[in-house]
Structures are given as structure tokens and as C-alpha cells.
Amino acid sequence: MTHLDTRRRQFLQYAAVGTMTAALPGFVFAESTQINDEPNSTFKADVEIELTAQIAELPILPGAHTHVFTYQGKLLKGPQATLKDLPGYLGPMLNFVQGQKVRIYFYNRLSEPCITHWHGMHVPQKMDGHPMYAISQGERYVYEFEVKNPAGTNWYHAHTHEMTATQVYQGLAGLITITDEAEQKLDLPSGEYDIPLVIQDRHFTNGNQLRYVHGMRQRMTGFLGDTILINGQANNTIPVKTRAYRLRILNGSNSRIYKLGWKDGTPLTAIGTDGGLLEKPETFPYIMLAPAERVELWVDFSGRKPGTDLILQNLEYKSAIPHMGGGMRHGGGMGRMGMMAGGLAQGKPFPVVKFHITEQVTDSPRLPDKLVPIHRLTTKDLSNPGKTLSIALSMRHMSPQLNGRSFEMQDYVDSEKIPVNTLQKIRIFHDNKSMGGGMGMMMSMPHPIHLHGQQFQILSRTQNNQDNGYKTVKDGFINSGWKDTVLVMPGEDVEIIKPFADYTGLFLYHCHNLEHEDMGMMRNFYVS
Fold first, then answer.
1. H/E run at residue 173
2. Which phi and psi (to 5°) does residue 390 adopt?
């Protein structure tokens, strides 16, 4: 679909707001869909940021600069550490403190519509980056919200209807960190010992330009690149000392699912996930990380010799996605895949990032036995224990859908109405009945499901198809703590418990395989 076609479709959807208002009682769309382009004089901001989406030519690979979309940030008010530029083409890291009131002036300098979503943040509908609020070139959107999240790692990215995949792919993404009093008491590694790692796979032409392959195969399975970027840079080697570090890892890829593990077999120690710190450190042989998921690792390089390397790699696993073929062309670190525009297949092994031990030191913090208290939600906490909401995943008629429906900008049905300030149980599962057993299982593939609004907790995972493929990934799921994205494997039922507190309006839920999202695998919850 061309940008012209997309803009025309958006115009028709926006124009339909007036006729839809009468059909949606209790929700004043005429007011809530207005672009928020002026600051609220009653909102007293502690932090003010100017964030601009624009075109740039930046160095990523040796040689010619790459044409990208990027976020340019400018701190107008607040602590100097609020903004931190990262090397590469990603937006600046935004460092917030729980309780801060934040105002962000977002400017669109692109020649296409754009809006930004604060992924993982608990904010009002108008501040969440719903695609209904996309602004055109030269316009601005003013976000104002209080930071209610606990300490942890979130991110921000473009969320423009039918253009999310391409805009994020071209660079419109960045990290958000939050700190609070509970975290500050833990003496976790900080400063240079607190390292962000945004993992993305990209495909480049011989002239170093980003190439986005968007044929039917890529639309159905998701785009896969052949070059691994870390924080927007290729062939990354990170120098470290013989002490403990905190790694904040985000899977910022469009559709690639990583099975992260150390090359030497050292177990991984997780201290945080999407929604913040865990109750206590947890050890895994490997960690599965789907698009949009985050994990925080405690990594202690003590005892390793200066001059040696430790490599974090993608371990092999059996993917439910049809094998795409191809292989890596080695050379220059991460390497590129030769002659295969479809990218490196899901589940194939390759190095992700190398840590090079440069210096021997003796001072290092100790891994805490406990991190932060977490109130574990159970079915006894549900507002309506006898009711379970359903999110059925399907690929009917070569169209990814949720509950048999595709996305319409402000559409919702009765089953998507949620009373505000309630706790709801939601079952997420694969619906293959309409396609028949064999065809249904063939079309099943992993889906990372993201729910906007507050974070949720995982109640249970049930695998109804215990084959060898699931055995290669089952030990890498972090099911404790708070989440906003969950990977649902083929044949798997996942039950979650989610608060819908504080804010009313439309809040999205969708597959975070960005190609699927753009194809309509997205719906609205209407919270009232």
C-alpha cells in the first residue's frame, strides 16, 4: 500500500468519527479525538522535552551514510540526566523518576503522518499514542502525563496506522528508564555499569541503505533482517571491567524472536522484565525475548581475565514459522546473509553482542537476595471471577486477526467493553478451528501480544501441542513479575490478570509482530 493510499484511508477513518459518535454512548469522541497541540496551563510539568521525528543521514555501516528516520531530542526543563543520546540512529534515552510530571512536545518533520506511543507506560488515552491522533508534517502533539510506573525499562516508538512497521524499522524508537525510591535502595549497578541494549535486525543494500522487504511472505511471517544492530550500530563490541553490570535489553526488532544465552553456557540472571524489577533474581539457561519484550540482566564479569570475550548469542530453537532458508555470510563480526532478501531464518544461531573484558577491578556490588515486593494477583482478586475475556489469535484467509476481527480505528464490540478500576482475567489462545486441524496448525505461529495501559501478570501457560519445538523454548519464559507483552506459542493458552485502573477510553491490544499489526491484528478495549 502506498503512503497516498494510507493517508486516504486514514482520512476516511477520521471523517467517520462524527457518524460513529452516536453509536458509541458514554464516550465523547468529538472531544477525545481532537489533536492535543497546546499545553494544559493547569499541568505543572517537572520535565519538558522537545522530541522531533525527522529524516537524517547517519553512519551505521562503514562507508556511505544511511538514510533513516530518527527522533531528535532537546531538554527544555528538568534534570540534565533526563536525556541521554545513544550512538547510532535511535532516539535519545529518556530517564524519568516515578512521580515526575512530564510534558513532551512532539513535532512531525516527516512527509507522512506519525504518532508516538510510550510503550509500557500507564498514561491516559490521549497520551498513549493511539493512531487516531497521528499528526501530519509540520504539526505537533503535546503529551502530558505523570510517571506512575515503578522503576524499570520501557520504550517509545512510532504507532502510526499501517505504517508502524516501516517507521520503527527506519529508526523511530528509543528507550525509557524509570527509577524510584525502592530501586535506589538496592545499590544496583549504575552509571557506566548500567548498559542499554536495543537489539534489532535490519537488511542493507550494497550502498548501506535500509531495505525493507514487504512481500506476502514477509507480511505473513514478519520481516527478518540479516544484520544485527545493537543500539543502532553494527558489529558492536562492548568493553567491560571485572565487576557486576546491569543490562537493560529490549527486543526492538519487527518480528524476530530471540533465544538469548551466553556462548559459554553460563546461566542468565534476570532481575527485571517489561513492568519493572522482579521480586528476587531468577536464573535461566536461556531467555526467550519476543518483539517489544524487555529483560534486565545482572551480569558479573568478576573472575574473567582481561583480554577475553563473553558473547551473548541467539541460540538455536525449533521455530513454528516455515523455514525461510538462507545463511549468514561471516565477516566483520555479526555478518550479513548473502543473496537472501528474506533474512536469517527464525531460530537459527548467531552472535548478538560481544563483551570484551578490558580491566581488572575489585569493587563490585553484590547481587541482592531480594529486589522489590510484588503483590501477586490471583483469581480471588478478580472483579468478576466468573468472567474471562478472550483474545483468539488466527490467520484466517491469510489475514492475522484477533477474535475473528481486524482493526478499525475506533471500533469495539460488547466483549471489548471493560469497566474502569477493575481486574480482569484474559485468556489468549490460538483459534484454528475454522481452518481445520492440519491447516490450522500449519498457519499457527508465535504471536507477541501487547496490551496498552497497565502492566499485567501471567496466571498460567498451558501447552496443548507438546512437540519437540516447544521443548526448545519452554525454559526461557519469565512468568513472574509485571508484563505488557507476552509471547504465545502455537498450541499455547496463556491466562493473564490485568488491571484497568484510573483512565477511561480506547486502549489498544495487538500483536507486536509489526507486520501483523499493520495488517490489522489489533483491536480496542473500551474502558468506561
1. strand 173-179
2. -115, 140
List the CATH code of the domain at 35-182: 2.60.40.420
Q: Which CATH superfamily is domain 379-527 in?
A: Cupredoxins -  blue copper proteins (2.60.40.420)
Q: Identify any residues that bridge with 505 across adjacent strands, giving them in sequence order.
A: 527
pLDDT for position 31 = 62
Domain ranges, ordered by start, for the chain: 35-182, 191-359, 379-527
Pick the CATH number of 191-359 from 3.40.50.970, 3.40.250.10, 3.40.50.150, 2.60.40.420: 2.60.40.420
Over residues 121-152, the pLDDT tens digits come to 999 999 999 999 999 999 999 999 999 999 99
pTM exceeds 0.70, yes or no: yes
C-alpha grid cell, residue 341 = 532478501
Question: Torsions phi, psi of 506, nearest 5?
Answer: -95, 125
Q: Provide the pLDDT confidence category of residue 2 given band limits of 50, 70 and 90.
A: very low
pLDDT at 178 (0 to 100): 98
**Region label for 128, one of left (φ > 0), alpha (ψ between -120 and 50) or beta (otherwise):** alpha
- DSSP for 319-366, written as a single string: -SSPP-----B--SSS-B-SS-TT-SPTT--EEEEEEEEEE-----PP
pLDDT at residue 30, as a whole number? 55
Same fold flag, 191-359 and 379-527? yes
